[in-house]
Amino acid sequence: MADNWFGYPAQKHRIHLSQAYTLLGDTTSARAEQEAALALTDAPSVMSRALLALDHAQCQHIDKDPQTAADTATTTWHQLPKGYQNGLVRTRAETLRDALTGRPRDQLTEALST
């Protein structure tokens, strides 16, 4: 049987595209993919929504708005159930924190420590 992506959900594809465009610094395309992914995401999908929100925060940082990025990431973090504050979600939040400086970095550092 050939390896293929048949049946791969469009929502997951959009989430991966959001991250890819974010990492490339293409915030316009990343935001478009975030919106498309959210439109395909069921309400209780906690991890997917958190990953998209953290991509959005990273885009805010890339677009030279570090305080808003920290605010978005902090709000996202505080809304997460403890069981989701690990793994990939934590890694994305820490990556953003490490890119920030000053007050925004301190704010996100404090959030991640609680």
Describe this structure in words.
By secondary structure, this protein is mainly α. It has one domain. It contains 6 helices and no strands. The protein has helices at 10-24, 27-40, 46-62, 66-79, 87-99, 102-113. Helix 3 (46-62) runs antiparallel to helix 4 (66-79). It starts with 9 loop residues before the first helix and ends with a helix. The mean pLDDT is 94.
Summarize the structure.
The chain is mainly α.
What distinguishing features does this structure have?
114 residues; mainly alpha; 6 helices
The shape, in one word, is: globular
- Overall pLDDT confidence: 94
Element string (H = helix, E = strand): HHHHHH
Structural class: mainly alpha
Main sheet summary: none
Q: What gap, in angstroms, lies between the N and C termini?
A: 47 Å
User: What's the number of helices?
Assistant: 6
Q: Hey, roughly how much beta strand do the residues contain? A: under 5%
Q: Share of helix among residues?
A: over 70%
Identify low-pLDDT runs: none
Spell out the blueprint of helices and strands:
Layout: H1 10-24, H2 27-40, H3 46-62, H4 66-79, H5 87-99, H6 102-113
Helix pairs in contact: 1-2, 1-3, 2-3, 3-4, 3-5, 4-6, 5-6
